[in-house]
UniProtKB/TrEMBL annotation:
Transmembrane residue ranges: 21-42, 174-191, 203-232, 244-272, 284-301, 348-368, 388-414, 426-443
Annotated region (Disordered), positions in chain: 449-496
Keywords on record: Membrane, Transmembrane, Transmembrane helix
Protein name: DUF2142 domain-containing protein
Bias type Basic and acidic residues, positions: 465-474
Native species: Bombiscardovia coagulans
UniProt keyword Transmembrane helix, yes or no: yes
Amino acid sequence: MSYRGELVRIHLRRSIADSRLALSLFFVLAILQGSYFISAIGPLTMPDTDMNANTPYAIATGQIFNLPHVETDKFGNHTKVQYISGDARLLKRTGRINTLVDTVVSSPLSPSSKQEKQRVIDHEPQSTITVPTSHIANRSNQYFPLVYLPQAAGIRIALWLNSSPYQVWQAGRITNFIVFLTLMGLAIVIIPRAKTMVACIAVFPMTVFIGSSLMADAFFISISACFLALFFRVSIRTTPATTLQVVCLGILSILLFYSKLVYVALAILLLALPHHVLSRKRKVITIGTCAVVALLSYGLWSSKYAGMLAITNIENNVHWMRHNPFTLVKTITWNIIFLPTKVSSDQLLTMQATIILGLAWLYLLQTLPKHQAPAHEQLSSWVSRNRYIILSVVVFLICLYLTFTALCLTWNAMPTFDSTTEIQGFQGRYILPLLPLLVCVAFHPKRPSLRSAGAPSSPDTETQETDRRSEPAHSHKYARKQKSGTFQFLHRKSRK
């Protein structure tokens, strides 16, 4: 094995060892909850069944690139409507319950969330139907197809096996859950600190239900967690980021763009990386390349296929926004300020999840090493030292403003609004991909090492300094074994 390969193997083994407690917490609680949700709650009990069920079915049956028809809805909007055909037992979505995630999670034992009504489709005769119809909606072309690949894989396998319609949907849930577990576990391993905090966010009942459903939000949450975990791993380096790390950050940024446009704001964090980690030239190349790839691919798909649901006249809203930008900003700001008040009614996060999140964050703050600020510290120095915290707050607010703007455009009649009107359509699941930003308090940029002026180093040896006070570390025996193994390997190399 090469020198680089041996060091990478050692660092990977150390990262997994550091993550044992957090991984155990995550996998045990997530699998227990996910197994219950899959077995006790029907696959069509979720928000937006016309999108979250139909899109993976369209991908699995090769119809996702059916050319849409431009039609005018009852609100006067011109939208692209995609027609797909298939088994009526699946596309009719009999027994579907179009409900909010927090409603299901807050009362998982209620009869409305069970699957008896949805199992009826197994006993119906097979026939073919084309949707949408006058009473069956279809939104299989609202999101970029890539975000539904995990569900589509399970549905495709189930169709090959001639499974019953109910089991076809269940297969899509299972593969989605497997991908969710894999990506969230990877995020826990990658992030060098605050692993337990990430695990707590990942085992929220809302998060696990989404991960074990047909919803694309599972992809949004896990990709966001992986991006932030890798970013914070790179952020505390004392040498340049490796090419592999930069490429992975770029790919994850593109996947965020494919998920929801609002979440691509997370990529702004790359600008905060110190120059010894990512130089200005590498930042421009990375961000520019990602922007070109994402815009070209998404733009080509969107111009030809993408359709969007709106329950108001978009043209009227755009006209109002252009002439009332300050009222728009004031209205969104008002709604953001009063967003925490929705916790008590479970419209943001459930009360239990909010309490767990608060306690986990307080524990993280208590276990962080105390940084002694220099006396008479200048403002510029303070901003530089806390750059990740400051920019994380800014990015969080940008995502909220973009989310509310999109809701204003498609869900609300803006000409009737004033500065204190409540914006309709916001759901707590929209902030789940942003919650890993809370770990920003555990990270501060480090001074460059003497090697930082050279080419990007291979293994990130400086970033693996896991905080012993905040995370479970290696035992002394394990650490001595690793150190001895590394020394023996390097000694053999020098003799050769």
